[in-house]
Write a structure and sequence with these properties.
- The structure is a single chain.
- The chain has a single domain, classed as Alpha-Beta Plaits, CATH 3.30.70.
- The protein has 9 helices and 4 strands, in the order αβααβααβααβαα.
- It has helices at 2-11, 22-26, 30-40, 54-60, 70-77, 92-100, 113-117, 132-142, 154-157, and strands spanning 13-20, 43-50, 82-90, 126-128.
- The chain has a 4-stranded antiparallel beta sheet.
- It is globular.
- Bound molecules: cytidine-5'-triphosphate (CTP), adenosine-5'-diphosphate and magnesium ion.
- Residues 64, 69, 73, 103, 121-122, 124, 127, 130 line the site of adenosine-5'-diphosphate.
Length: 163
Amino acid sequence: MLETLSKYLSSTLERTLIAVKPDGVQRRLVGQIMQRFEQRGFKLVGLKMLQVSDDLLSQHYCELRTKPFYPRLLHYMTSGPVVAMVWEGHKVVQTSRTMVGHTNPAEAQAGTVRGDFSFHVSRNVVHASDSLEGAQREIQLWFQRKELLNWDCCDQTITGSCV
Ligand SMILES: Nc1ccn([C@@H]2O[C@H](COP(=O)(O)OP(=O)(O)OP(=O)(O)O)[C@@H](O)[C@H]2O)c(=O)n1
Ligand SMILES: Nc1ncnc2c1ncn2[C@@H]1O[C@H](COP(=O)(O)OP(=O)(O)O)[C@@H](O)[C@H]1O
Ligand SMILES: [Mg+2]
Protein backbone atom coordinates (compact mmCIF):
# COMPACT_ATOMS: atom_id res chain seq x y z
CA MET A 1 0.00 0.00 0.00
CA LEU A 2 2.73 2.44 1.08
CA GLU A 3 4.86 1.37 -1.86
CA THR A 4 1.94 1.98 -4.24
CA LEU A 5 1.37 5.48 -2.82
CA SER A 6 5.05 6.30 -3.05
CA LYS A 7 5.16 5.08 -6.71
CA TYR A 8 2.08 7.16 -7.52
CA LEU A 9 3.52 10.28 -5.91
CA SER A 10 6.85 9.92 -7.69
CA SER A 11 5.08 9.46 -11.03
CA THR A 12 3.25 12.78 -10.58
CA LEU A 13 6.24 14.88 -9.54
CA GLU A 14 6.35 18.42 -10.85
CA ARG A 15 8.82 21.28 -10.56
CA THR A 16 8.07 24.97 -10.30
CA LEU A 17 9.95 28.25 -10.18
CA ILE A 18 9.50 30.39 -7.09
CA ALA A 19 11.36 33.70 -6.88
CA VAL A 20 11.54 36.02 -3.90
CA LYS A 21 11.37 39.43 -5.55
CA PRO A 22 13.64 42.35 -4.56
CA ASP A 23 11.19 43.69 -1.95
CA GLY A 24 11.01 40.23 -0.31
CA VAL A 25 14.81 39.99 -0.14
CA GLN A 26 15.15 43.57 1.17
CA ARG A 27 12.52 42.91 3.84
CA ARG A 28 14.40 39.75 4.93
CA LEU A 29 11.49 37.44 4.11
CA VAL A 30 13.52 34.78 2.26
CA GLY A 31 13.75 32.39 5.23
CA GLN A 32 10.06 32.58 6.10
CA ILE A 33 9.04 31.99 2.48
CA MET A 34 11.36 29.00 2.09
CA GLN A 35 10.13 27.58 5.39
CA ARG A 36 6.55 27.49 4.09
CA PHE A 37 7.59 25.34 1.11
CA GLU A 38 9.69 23.03 3.29
CA GLN A 39 6.99 22.53 5.86
CA ARG A 40 4.44 21.83 3.14
CA GLY A 41 6.63 18.90 2.15
CA PHE A 42 8.22 20.13 -1.07
CA LYS A 43 11.83 19.48 -1.99
CA LEU A 44 14.31 22.22 -2.89
CA VAL A 45 16.23 21.21 -6.02
CA GLY A 46 17.65 24.57 -7.13
CA LEU A 47 18.57 27.80 -5.37
CA LYS A 48 20.47 30.97 -6.26
CA MET A 49 20.60 34.70 -5.61
CA LEU A 50 21.01 36.90 -8.64
CA GLN A 51 20.72 40.41 -9.97
CA VAL A 52 18.26 39.81 -12.80
CA SER A 53 19.05 41.20 -16.25
CA ASP A 54 16.59 43.10 -18.45
CA ASP A 55 17.06 40.36 -21.02
CA LEU A 56 15.98 37.58 -18.64
CA LEU A 57 13.03 39.63 -17.42
CA SER A 58 11.80 40.47 -20.89
CA GLN A 59 11.67 36.76 -21.65
CA HIS A 60 10.19 35.88 -18.27
CA TYR A 61 7.44 38.49 -18.53
CA CYS A 62 7.01 38.37 -22.34
CA GLU A 63 3.23 38.10 -22.00
CA LEU A 64 3.09 41.38 -20.06
CA ARG A 65 5.18 43.43 -22.52
CA THR A 66 2.24 45.53 -23.69
CA LYS A 67 0.85 46.23 -20.22
CA PRO A 68 1.01 49.82 -18.99
CA PHE A 69 2.80 48.76 -15.82
CA TYR A 70 5.53 46.81 -17.67
CA PRO A 71 8.28 49.49 -17.43
CA ARG A 72 7.59 49.84 -13.69
CA LEU A 73 7.64 46.06 -13.33
CA LEU A 74 11.13 45.91 -14.93
CA HIS A 75 12.34 48.68 -12.64
CA TYR A 76 10.95 46.86 -9.59
CA MET A 77 12.40 43.49 -10.53
CA THR A 78 15.87 44.96 -11.12
CA SER A 79 15.87 47.13 -7.97
CA GLY A 80 17.91 44.53 -6.05
CA PRO A 81 18.79 40.85 -5.98
CA VAL A 82 16.19 38.12 -6.37
CA VAL A 83 16.34 34.66 -4.77
CA ALA A 84 15.26 32.06 -7.32
CA MET A 85 14.31 28.53 -6.33
CA VAL A 86 13.06 25.37 -7.95
CA TRP A 87 10.76 23.29 -5.76
CA GLU A 88 9.72 19.74 -6.58
CA GLY A 89 6.72 17.72 -5.46
CA HIS A 90 3.27 16.37 -6.15
CA LYS A 91 1.13 19.10 -7.77
CA VAL A 92 3.69 21.69 -6.68
CA VAL A 93 2.69 24.16 -9.45
CA GLN A 94 -0.93 24.51 -8.42
CA THR A 95 -0.23 24.18 -4.71
CA SER A 96 2.41 26.89 -4.74
CA ARG A 97 0.07 29.30 -6.57
CA THR A 98 -2.43 28.72 -3.76
CA MET A 99 0.28 29.24 -1.15
CA VAL A 100 1.47 32.46 -2.82
CA GLY A 101 -2.02 33.91 -3.21
CA HIS A 102 -3.72 36.33 -5.57
CA THR A 103 -1.54 38.61 -7.71
CA ASN A 104 -3.14 41.63 -6.07
CA PRO A 105 -2.40 41.41 -2.33
CA ALA A 106 -5.65 43.24 -1.58
CA GLU A 107 -7.42 40.12 -2.86
CA ALA A 108 -4.96 37.60 -1.44
CA GLN A 109 -6.24 35.56 1.48
CA ALA A 110 -4.59 35.78 4.87
CA GLY A 111 -2.35 32.74 5.24
CA THR A 112 -0.91 33.14 1.75
CA VAL A 113 2.53 34.70 1.24
CA ARG A 114 1.09 37.76 -0.48
CA GLY A 115 -1.86 37.91 1.91
CA ASP A 116 0.48 37.93 4.90
CA PHE A 117 3.38 40.04 3.68
CA SER A 118 2.21 42.56 1.08
CA PHE A 119 -0.44 45.16 0.36
CA HIS A 120 0.17 46.38 -3.22
CA VAL A 121 0.34 44.58 -6.56
CA SER A 122 3.50 46.42 -7.57
CA ARG A 123 5.35 45.05 -4.48
CA ASN A 124 3.93 41.56 -4.13
CA VAL A 125 7.06 39.87 -2.74
CA VAL A 126 7.15 36.62 -4.66
CA HIS A 127 6.76 34.99 -8.07
CA ALA A 128 5.32 31.53 -8.71
CA SER A 129 4.92 29.83 -12.08
CA ASP A 130 1.26 29.69 -13.06
CA SER A 131 1.09 26.44 -15.09
CA LEU A 132 3.09 23.30 -15.74
CA GLU A 133 4.15 24.58 -19.17
CA GLY A 134 5.01 27.98 -17.71
CA ALA A 135 7.07 26.33 -14.97
CA GLN A 136 9.07 24.28 -17.48
CA ARG A 137 9.73 27.37 -19.60
CA GLU A 138 10.73 29.51 -16.61
CA ILE A 139 12.99 26.87 -15.02
CA GLN A 140 14.91 26.53 -18.30
CA LEU A 141 15.18 30.29 -18.51
CA TRP A 142 16.44 30.86 -14.96
CA PHE A 143 18.52 27.72 -14.32
CA GLN A 144 21.08 25.66 -16.17
CA ARG A 145 20.47 21.93 -16.09
CA LYS A 146 23.57 21.34 -13.91
CA GLU A 147 22.26 23.79 -11.30
CA LEU A 148 19.33 21.48 -10.51
CA LEU A 149 20.14 18.63 -8.12
CA ASN A 150 18.43 15.29 -7.68
CA TRP A 151 18.79 14.07 -4.12
CA ASP A 152 17.18 11.54 -1.82
CA CYS A 153 15.44 12.34 1.45
CA CYS A 154 16.82 10.13 4.23
CA ASP A 155 13.34 9.87 5.72
CA GLN A 156 11.90 8.47 2.51
CA THR A 157 14.53 5.99 1.39
CA ILE A 158 14.95 3.71 4.41
CA THR A 159 13.59 0.35 3.29
CA GLY A 160 15.19 -2.62 5.02
CA SER A 161 15.85 -2.94 8.75
CA CYS A 162 17.34 0.04 10.58
CA VAL A 163 20.87 -0.28 11.93
N1 LIG B 1 -0.99 46.13 -12.30
C1 LIG B 1 0.07 45.38 -12.05
C2 LIG B 1 0.07 44.04 -12.38
C3 LIG B 1 1.21 43.32 -12.12
N2 LIG B 1 2.28 43.93 -11.56
C4 LIG B 1 3.48 43.18 -11.29
O1 LIG B 1 3.72 42.31 -12.34
C5 LIG B 1 3.89 40.99 -11.85
C6 LIG B 1 3.47 40.02 -12.85
O2 LIG B 1 2.05 40.05 -13.04
P1 LIG B 1 1.29 38.75 -13.23
O3 LIG B 1 2.12 37.72 -13.92
O4 LIG B 1 -0.02 39.11 -13.80
O5 LIG B 1 1.09 38.35 -11.72
P2 LIG B 1 1.52 37.03 -11.03
O6 LIG B 1 1.56 35.89 -11.99
O7 LIG B 1 0.68 36.87 -9.81
O8 LIG B 1 2.94 37.41 -10.55
P3 LIG B 1 4.26 36.73 -10.96
O9 LIG B 1 4.17 36.43 -12.43
O10 LIG B 1 5.29 37.74 -10.60
O11 LIG B 1 4.25 35.50 -10.12
C7 LIG B 1 3.11 40.97 -10.56
O12 LIG B 1 3.51 39.99 -9.66
C8 LIG B 1 3.38 42.35 -10.03
O13 LIG B 1 4.64 42.38 -9.40
C9 LIG B 1 2.24 45.23 -11.25
O14 LIG B 1 3.20 45.75 -10.73
N3 LIG B 1 1.14 45.96 -11.51
N1 LIG C 1 -2.07 45.82 -12.36
C1 LIG C 1 -0.79 45.63 -12.02
N2 LIG C 1 -0.07 46.70 -11.59
C2 LIG C 1 1.23 46.53 -11.25
N3 LIG C 1 1.87 45.35 -11.33
C3 LIG C 1 1.20 44.26 -11.75
C4 LIG C 1 -0.17 44.33 -12.11
N4 LIG C 1 -0.59 43.11 -12.51
C5 LIG C 1 0.47 42.30 -12.37
N5 LIG C 1 1.53 42.97 -11.92
C6 LIG C 1 2.83 42.46 -11.66
O1 LIG C 1 3.18 41.54 -12.64
C7 LIG C 1 3.46 40.28 -12.04
C8 LIG C 1 3.16 39.18 -12.96
O2 LIG C 1 1.80 39.19 -13.28
P1 LIG C 1 1.00 37.85 -13.42
O3 LIG C 1 1.89 36.85 -14.00
O4 LIG C 1 -0.27 38.20 -14.09
O5 LIG C 1 0.62 37.47 -11.96
P2 LIG C 1 1.33 36.47 -10.96
O6 LIG C 1 2.56 37.16 -10.44
O7 LIG C 1 0.32 36.25 -9.87
O8 LIG C 1 1.60 35.28 -11.77
C9 LIG C 1 2.68 40.28 -10.79
O9 LIG C 1 3.17 39.42 -9.80
C10 LIG C 1 2.85 41.71 -10.36
O10 LIG C 1 4.11 41.92 -9.77
MG1 LIG D 1 2.59 35.55 -13.44
